[in-house]
Amino acid sequence: MMNKMQKTTSFNDNFQTGLDLDQLARAIKTWSKELGFQDLRISDATADMSEAESGMFAWIEQAYHGEMDYMAKHGTKRSRPFELVPGTQRIISVRMNYYPPKAADSWSVIHNGENAFISRYALGRDYHKVLRSRMQKLAEKIQDAVESFNYRVFSDSAPVMEVEWAQKSGLGWRGKHTLLLSREAGSYFFLGEIYTDLPLPIDSPIGDKGSFCGSCTKCLDICPTQAIVAPFKVDARRCISYLTIELKSSIPAALRPLIGNRIYGCDDCQLVCPWNKFSHSTEETDFHVRHGLDDVTLVELFAWRQDEFETKLAGNPIRRIGYSQWLRNIAVGLGNAPYSETIVAALRARADDPSEIVREHVQWALEQQTNKQKINTTTGG
Asked: Could you tell me the strand order of the sheet in which 115-118 lies?
């Protein structure tokens, strides 16, 4: 500890006489590792983003953003950092692994229709809070080292094209499923950014989008709802993550059977990606499984009262969708599950739920269960 303190003191003294930006960048990367980030890279905030910007507007023009009005609201602030934070010269991008160790095998859960599948990033503590807190600490370390440092921290919380900036920084490349991929870590990680006016040295990209995907189309082929309509293009209106998290209204009836038992997010495109053989489980305990959410039945979760939902999911990203949307999603899962008298009883118990949207999806689920019962009776199954 004494060595670190002495090194930091010497480092600060150097900055009093002249700002060595190369030295600062190296120190920032060291500090980031100490704070639990697996990698940190720096990109030029004034870099040409015209291609990404035009692509973003074309995507919105095709209405692929669905009900996510905020995607269109901020316009060029997403692609022009200086419009969002005046004076921004550099973007510090970080990544942190999230895949929880000892979590139940994802495919085993998905293939068990009575169980609930929750995207593996949402089994522990809300990543927004964890990353923002760590990046704030990193920013404070930088501030201690320099006399003048203006910055703003982001973690999926503002109009920031985080994958584009992460790609430009060299953290990875955009895969055909639109997520960032790393040769060292696959895709099971969170991204965060610090916008700053410090003219730090810039890291080099390792490649453009799809650089190391080759002819592979596994992510496009596996998507349950065929939401990846072309390489690097997702129609959010069909994406299960959008349908179960972002969509506040009714889930389109035609898509409900395709959702299966995925009640919060979907990992299929990541599960089949060859690069995830290089992924690593997180050492961050905040992202470890809580309340057995990695392997739990739909009926058990559907029985949670609102106070249980609020208490058990306190500090979890799932809590953000609210109790009614949670029940809506589970009802769809129950409708897709194999016929069971237990499931029918659970659904009937919520047939008169105060929420209209819950009642609608419960009724749909009951109809699905009734149809399955008839088939079983006819076939003797």
From this structure: 262-264, 115-118, 296-297
pTM: 0.92
The answer, yes or no, to whether residue 2 has pLDDT greater than 90, is no
**352 carries an active-site annotation:** no
Burial class (CB in 10 A: 0-12, 13-18, 19+), 165: buried
DSSP string, 75-116: GGGTT-HHHHSTT--EEEEEEEE-PPTTPPPHHHHHT-TTEE
Residue carrying the six token digits 């969509």? 247
Given 22, 144, 156, 221, the catalytic residue = 156
Question: Burial level of 6, CB count in 10 A (0-12/13-18/19+)?
Answer: exposed
Measured CA to CA, the distance from residue 381 to residue 377 in angstroms comes to: 6
In degrees rounded to 5, what are phi and psi of residue 98? -130, -15
Tokens of 229: 């309509």
